[in-house]
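Appendix C: a fully annotated inverse folding record. The material below is reproduced so that readers can follow the format used throughout the book. The structure is listed first as tokens, followed by the designed sequence.
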């Protein structure tokens, strides 16, 4: 990762040089390049006079990164995975089990898929709307309410004894994550300054 193309080219050249000392080569065909910007333009980075392929999206540690720097694609992708998981276990979620047990199963099994990595995402208004729509989709499917039944969201929430909670949950995760980052940084600073001994 680098802020300028020249810096990135220098880093790659150095990586190739060090790798060759140990008999390793970088595969140009498998190496991809993505420039993240509000107005993405292709970057020109070369390995042995061969230009790297510019891509618009990239999967990194299970999260989908896009060249516009937004999280909409990742959120939609996560919602699709969660819906697929719900459909696989549909018989369980729509069974005659106790309502509270089914709700706990949905929150544990489905919400964890949909909200994976949510603490580091930037939520725009449209993303918030998608998240709330997904939440209602889960409760409607759980109660076997079709969109053609014209049942209002308020009535669905009343039936399942729930409130709109997904955005509150995401905000709580964000606050916890920021707290962990700040505490870790303070601890690391104290270790570096020699105030305390130990590993971070």
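Designed amino acids, in order:
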């Amino acid at each position: 990762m680098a802020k300028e193309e020249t810096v990135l080219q220098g880093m790659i050249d150095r990586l190739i040089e060090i790798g060759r000392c140990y008999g390793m080569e970088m595969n140009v065909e498998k190496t991809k390049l993505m420039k993240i910007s509000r107005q993405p333009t292709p970057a020109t980075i070369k390995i042995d006079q061969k230009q790297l392929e510019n891509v618009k999206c990239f999967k990194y540690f299970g999260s989908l990164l896009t060249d516009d720097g937004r999280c909409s694609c990742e959120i939609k992708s996560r919602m699709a995975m969660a819906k697929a998981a719900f459909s696989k276990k549909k018989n369980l979620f729509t069974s005659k089990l106790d309502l509270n047990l089914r709700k706990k199963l949905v929150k544990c099994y489905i919400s964890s898929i949909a909200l994976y990595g949510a603490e580091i995402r930037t939520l725009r208004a449209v993303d918030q709307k998608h998240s709330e729509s997904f939440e209602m989709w889960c409760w409607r499917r759980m109660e076997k309410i079709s969109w053609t039944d014209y049942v209002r969201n308020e009535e669905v929430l009343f039936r399942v004894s729930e409130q709109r909670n997904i955005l509150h949950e995401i905000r709580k995760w964000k606050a916890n994550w920021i707290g962990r980052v700040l505490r870790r940084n303070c601890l690391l600073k104290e270790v570096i300054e020699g105030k305390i001994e130990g590993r971070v």
